[in-house]
Amino acid sequence: MIVGVPAPELITDPTDERVADFRDLVAGDRRPGTERGTGPVIVEGVPAVQRLLASPYPVRSVIGIPGRVAALELPAEVTAYEADKWVLSDLIGFRLTRGVLASADRLPPPDLDALIAGPDPAAPRRLAVLEGLNDHENIGSIARSAVALGIDGLLLDPHCADPLYRRCVRVSMGHVLTLPIAVLGDWPGGLDRLHEAGYCTVALTPADDAVDVGDVDPRAHPRTAVLLGAEGPGLTREAQQAARVRARIPMRSGVDSLGVAAAAAVAFATLR
């Protein structure tokens, strides 16, 4: 324990209102009683909570099994709780294998034009643009690859699932908390805002008439936005038509496509 940091408060009753943020964390689309994209951000596991602490998201509280919370070296202003594994399971609604959770307030969405421009409007910049992705684990995987492979932000169409939902954050290992995220409300017409800012929009598709993604030279296109659609339907025809380039990942004969998270990682790496 750090000198001057209060010891975690003990929770023995799963109905204790002090830990209401963590109650009934079911594996559905949203917390009970909350609308999509609202409610606190819930983060699981020591590495992810550490990334939360380093992020701009205001931490509300942390709870974990004895010993796990102390290992986080929390700042004094963060309220911490401890509970044994049975009380914690009753509180959150499932057995937690990662030993610790945190809750945080959401941030106001960034200004879309500022996100597109970036700190330096003349600097190389890359974005990932998601259309219709409704699988939280896919979004989390894409976010993790995005951070690892140099993507500067996420843009979502109005129908994507919440990228700050608990499972997205968990699968991303907390990396999604380091990405600026905004919704492109006018879809796909809003892609013109990217074109005006100098982006080459690259729509991923397995279609035979698309160009090889390896032929899209990132040196010729220092500002690139990669468009990704949901597994199964992929990008809509309208989104593909609105993009500047339609690109495919070359694959062995007999394999028609990759999962969207794997395809995203390949494209991000190819277009670095």
Automatic annotation (TrEMBL):
Claim: Secreted is one of the keywords in the record:
no
CDD domains, per the entry: SpoU-like_rRNA-MTase
| tRNA/rRNA methyltransferase SpoU type domain boundaries | 128-268
Could you say which EC number(s) this protein's record lists? 2.1.1.-
Q: One Pfam annotation, family name? A: SpoU_methylase
Transferase recorded as keyword? yes
Its transmembrane ranges are none
The protein's matches in InterPro entries, at most eight in alphabetical order, are given as:
Alpha/beta_knot_MTases (IPR029028), Ribosomal_eL30-like_sf (IPR029064), rRNA_Methyltransferase (IPR051259), SpoU_MeTrfase (IPR001537), tRNA_m1G_MTases_N (IPR029026)
A GO molecular function held by the record: RNA binding
User: Could you tell me the superkingdom of the organism this chain comes from?
Assistant: Bacteria
- Alphabetically list the UniProt keywords: Methyltransferase, Transferase
Q: What Gene Ontology terms for biological process does this UniProt record contain? A: methylation; RNA processing
Q: What is this protein called?
A: tRNA/rRNA methyltransferase
Q: What is the lineage of its organism?
A: Bacteria, Bacillati, Actinomycetota, Actinomycetes, Geodermatophilales
